[in-house]
Write a structure and sequence with these properties.
single chain; mainly beta; Immunoglobulin-like; 2 domains; five-stranded mixed β-sheet; five-stranded antiparallel β-sheet
Length: 176
């Protein structure tokens, strides 16, 4: 299950959004009130993705009619905070008008009926159930291999963790 939010930019230059990864953020610039015609919009999504929407012949040449959607994923952390920055460049204006969206992302629930006390939200997980079926320590760094079994959908999920660095080294889902 993917979570999503649509942000309609208007008079506020700072917006805060929270959600669970994977997360789809749609930014709609249509209601932004600017003095001059916009010739370019720069979307910096905060994770290395940058999109430039320039003046074009379609849609009357106005980039304000084109919303942008970006998908966020979390790989090795329980939560992360990112800032998406939208810059509007106007004809005849030197400095861009800047809007910032603070995005707080949390790791998704893996099992059904999980209650998150931080956000006071009950989540539907990706799997109906998950069970630890085995673990092994190996290698010179004492990495630990955990083997999980999921039910509905059915997968064997190996996860390798180095507890000295609290880093997930590798994980791979294998269908059963």
């Amino acid at each position: 299950m993917a979570y999503s939010a649509s942000v309609l930019l208007s008079s506020s230059n700072f917006i805060s959004v929270s959600g669970y990864a994977p997360f789809a953020l749609t930014i709609d610039p249509l209601n932004v009130s600017l003095k001059n015609k916009v010739y370019s919009i720069n979307y910096n999504f905060g994770d290395g993705t940058i999109i430039n929407q320039n003046l074009s012949l379609d849609l009357n040449g106005d980039p304000l009619y084109v919303p942008q959607t970006h998908n966020y994923y979390i790989s090795n952390t329980l939560n992360t905070t990112l800032s998406a920055v939208v810059s509007f460049y106007q004809i005849g204006v030197t400095n861009p008008s800047v809007y910032t969206i603070a995005l707080n992302l949390y790791a998704p629930a893996m099992e059904s009926s999980v209650y998150n006390q931080t956000t006071a939200v009950s989540l539907s997980g990706y799997f109906q159930e998950m069970h630890l079926i085995g673990s092994r320590m190996f290698g010179p760094n004492n990495n630990i291999l955990y083997m999980f079994e999921s039910i509905n959908p059915n997968y064997i999920i190996p996860v390798i963790v180095n507890w000295k660095t609290n880093q997930i080294i590798d994980n791979l889902s294998l269908p059963m």
